[in-house]
Amino acid sequence: MCKWRGAFCYLDLLMSPLAHMVGYDPKLASVLRNACMKDKTVIITTLNDAWAEPGSIFDLFLESFRLGNQTKKFLNHLVVITWDQKAHARCLALHKHCYQVETKGDNFTGEAFFMTADYLHMMWRRIEFLGTVLDMGYNFVFTDTDIMWLRDPFKQFYKDTDFQIACDFFNGNSYDLNNHPNGGFNYVKSNKRTILFYKFWFNSRNAYPKLHDQDVLNKIKKDSFVSNMKLKVRFLSTSYFGGFCQHAEDFNKVSTMHANCCVGLENKVNDLKILLEDWKKYVALPESKKNQSHPSWSVSCRTSFERAKQKKQKNKGRLRRALVVTV
Ligand SMILES: *[C@@H]1O[C@H](CO)[C@@H](O)[C@H](O)[C@H]1NC(C)=O
Ligand SMILES: *[C@@H]1O[C@H](CO)[C@@H](O)[C@H](O)[C@H]1NC(C)=O
Ligand SMILES: *[C@@H]1O[C@H](CO)[C@@H](O)[C@H](O)[C@H]1NC(C)=O
């Protein structure tokens, strides 16, 4: 009935009183303690081997903290969760807070293609893991590794909110549950409501076995269970937390940019390189010019994403659902 899964044992029951008696991995406790900010907040990303290769996404991710405006300090609070030995070795070579999740039999080494069984499994492990972090009393900012940190996001986060999440497409109303969230970036405070919410979210995978964690989030966000627990949810504006789906247009405002609406590792790497070049050019402008010149991002992966989507739609639409939801 109870299976050991990495750091924590989850019964398939909500709010299991036994869970606390089982205990946490002391290694994880130590990594979180060393990386957290004064208010027990950590920044978390997850990494597998394909993204950790030299010159790939992980390098660009770390680079963005150095190129961003006053984002370098956040590297001290960044915990990199690795899924395999190779990614772990690479993390240790470049970064000080790395934690390898026990995977026993799982093999996340290769590029996990979107919506394959491996991919789904990996995404659910992530939700489970983040629930554990909340349970241990830590707040977190979860960030996908293909998100570039250009400015301090804490300046833009909403106050007094349990769960705030970035969007592929933002409709202008941060309270509107019809916004299209992207699970690749969120800021979650540890409290009774969020701990319960993550358990509910993780357990909901059984009700929707073929769906992605993000799709399930879209299913459960209006569930009466969630509204009854009074979880304070808000959606982050793409003006600050943008991506390739919807750009953060104004370089004077952008906090983060995500390589969403972009398929394929190589395409992502190319466009993220271009994006960092655009940013460097902007940063090099004299202060007086920064607000007057109106640069735009020269990324183009979105078009390949659209083309792939159209092609797939013609092909009987089998993968359509997969592509409508973005990575
Ligand atoms: C970087 O941040 C500092 C302090 O907030 C600010 O004075 C400066 O204008 C910022 N530069 C850019 C490029 O945003
Ligand atoms: C994991 O998968 C990779 C290819 O995706 C393979 O080369 C490797 O041998 C596998 N490792 C294990 C332990 O099965
Ligand atoms: C530049 O623009 C940003 C956002 O558009 C604004 O917050 C900032 O105050 C402006 N700075 C100056 C010096 O006008």
TrEMBL record:
Domain Nucleotide-diphospho-sugar transferase: 74-272
Signal peptide feature range: 1-21
InterPro entries: At1g28695/At4g15970-like, Nucl-diP-sugar_transferase
Keyword entries, A-Z: Signal
PANTHER family registered for this protein in UniProt: EXPRESSED PROTEIN-RELATED, GLYCOSYLTRANSFERASE
Listed name of the protein: Nucleotide-diphospho-sugar transferase domain-containing protein
Organism expressing this protein natively: Glycine soja
Lineage of producing organism: Eukaryota, Viridiplantae, Streptophyta, Embryophyta, Tracheophyta
